[in-house]
Structure formats: structure tokens, C-alpha cells
Amino acid sequence: MPELPEVETTVRGLRPVLEGARLTLVEPRRADIRRAIPVDLRQRMTGAVVTALGRRAKYGLVSTDRGDTMIFHLGMSGRWRIDPGEVGKHDHLVLETDARRRLALNDARRFGSIDLVRTDDVEAFPAFAALGPEPLGAAFNRAYLSAKLAGRAGPIKALLLDQRIVAGLGNIYVCEALNMAGIAPSSAGGSIGPRRLGRLVDAVRAVLLSAIDAGGSTLRDYAQPDGNLGYFSTQFRVYGRTGDACPCGGVVERRAEGGRSTFWCPKCQR
User: Fold this and answer.
1) 13 close to 29: Cβ distance less than 8 angstroms
2) 55, 58, 79, 148: the active-site residue
3) In this predicted model, what pLDDT tens digit does every residue of 24-42 receive, in sequence order?
4) What pLDDT is recorded for position 222?
């Protein structure tokens, strides 16, 4: 599933094409994907000017001068295609602009979603209401994480994946950040001292920013809007590297937990 860096990369790729553009065509090509596409999406967005593009957790935001914001989620296989030669059967939403640019939201598995809310009500959107702070924002810091983890006996990896604690982190980048910080994924969250939590916050930021700079990770169907594949997977420290050498010289191990794979190095992660 595309994680925060992939969604951020997507938003950055869409911004030069959509921001400031008037939408001359808004065409949902089916009634639903994971759930129903808003029936008034065409009416409310056709003719509107896109005023801003943003991201919240793993969702992309497209705001207009009519006070509406379209919220999209890429699901497992979703991606935007810019100026496709032709519209394909998995292109479930097509947008065209006054500059004669075309964008198609392609989602072969149909696990993505499209919602439309009033911009003033974005924070009340059900998927956002209980989210923690953004991991790249100032609110996510050592003091905050220490307070959230105080007294928690659960493993730090599971706690970092809890969207109520920090928004947008997924399995790949949590594995990578824990390795960079030298913290075992099974460590009890409440047992990690302030200095190590500071290293973890820094590692989370560093891993996410590196992944964004690399255009995300090419896993299964993900590609950037321009069709290029992200290459952060070539920089993975531990993820998917069972039996390979960790940067510390140890050997990467893997275990399955709750349907997810955890990759870590027993030598440097304590």
C-alpha cells in the first residue's frame, strides 16, 4: 500500500498540473471504488479552480475556490496518471483542465477512495478526526512521543503504526526508522528513554524525507504521476533484506506479526 512518502510524492507531482487550473471536465467513470464516489462530485467540481493541494496522513487533498476539498486515498494499487495517451478501464476518475491537461486516477484493485467535503470541515472528516500529528510536523517531537508512550507496554513498532499516535506511518518506514535509531521493534514503548526517543523522532523524519526525495518506493503497482518509479527501495537498510548485511555488519532477520513482516537487526537494535 502506498505510504506517506508515496502520497506526498503524488501530491507534489500533481501540484504543477492542477494548482491554479480550472477544471473543465470531472468525470467519474464508475459509481464506486472502495465505496461510493460522491454523486455530486461532477457538479461541484466542474468549472472550479484548484486553489491548493495537500496531504493528511496517507490521503491527498485537492481544494477549490468553491470551498470544497476532494480527498483521495490510493488504496493498494492506486496512482494518478498525467496526460495518459488514452483512458483505460482502470481509470476511475478523469479530470481535465483549461490548459488541456488530463489526469486519470487509476486503481486496478479498487481499494482507493474519493470523498468530497467542505474545506472548513476537513479536520472533522471521519478518517482524520482521531489522527495524531504529522511525523514531519513540529508537533511530533521527543516530548510528545514520550508523553504518548508513557506506561505503554506494547511493542514500539505497533505503537508507531497506531495512527492515533502519529499519522501516516506504515510498515516499511517504521522498520527502517527503528533500524536507524537502533531500537528493537519489540521494545516496550514505555521503556524507551528520552534520548533514544529523540533519536527515533529524528530517524522517522530522516527516513521519510529520504524516501520523498527518492520518489517513494517501487512496490507492486506504485508509480509517480509522471509514470516514473520511486527508487527508495534501493536504499532500504533492512526492509525486505532478510539474510543480508545490516549497515552495522549484523544480519537482517524477519518475522511475521499480525499479517505484516517485521525486518530488523538483532545486533544493533536493542
Assistant:
1) no
2) 58
3) 999 999 999 999 999 999 9
4) 46
